[in-house]
Structure formats: structure tokens, C-alpha cells
Write a structure and sequence with these properties.
The chain is mainly beta. It contains no helices and 13 strands. A 5-stranded parallel beta sheet has the order 1-3-6-9-12, with no helix packed on it. The chain has a 5-stranded parallel beta sheet with strand order 2-4-7-10-13, with no helix packed on it.
Amino acid sequence: MEKNGLVFYGKNSDIEAKGSANFSNKGILAYLEDSKFTSYLGNLTGADNTILFVKNSQVNLAGNGTPVDVSVAANQTGMQIEGTSSTLEGIKDITLGQKFYSYIFKEWKSNIYS
């Protein structure tokens, strides 16, 4: 992926991410709005950008049934989640770098499941 790329964009979409995705060069894995995202990609490592932007969407990072590990780089935000209908499932462990934000929540109910 080129620098600052976006792997998945979903608006009113149903996305299944299979195979592999390289978003390590200031990329973003997904921007989701009113969508459903199921990942079969395995563990996620963010570098130089936010991994997921989620707005009124449902995210399952354990599409294969096994919760994943998420690593957030130093000085980065792991995920930004907003909207009362957003859900996040399938996280086993989160590893955080220095001076980080693991998640930013806006108008969101607590719906994180592992």
C-alpha cells in the first residue's frame, strides 16, 4: 500500500476482510459508517495512524472465532468509535505504545466483547 492509504471504506456496507492487509505505512485498516465489518485477518498492528474509524457500525475482529491481539504504536490512536449503535467484538489483548490513545469514544454505549 502507498503511504496514507485506506484498505477498506464502508458506508452502508457489509465487508468481510480475508487474506492479508498491509496498512503499516501510515495506512488505515478501515473507515466504517453504518456498516458491518468482519475480519479474518488475525492480529492487528497499527503504525503511524489509527487502525479503525467506526461510526454506527458493527465490527467483529474474530471472524474465524479466535479473538485477536491489537498493538497500538507509540503516539497513536488504536480505534476511534462513535455512535450509540457501534459494537466491537473479538479482541483478546491490547498492547499500547507510549503516549497513546487506545480508543476514542463519542456518543457510544459500552459494547466491547472478546
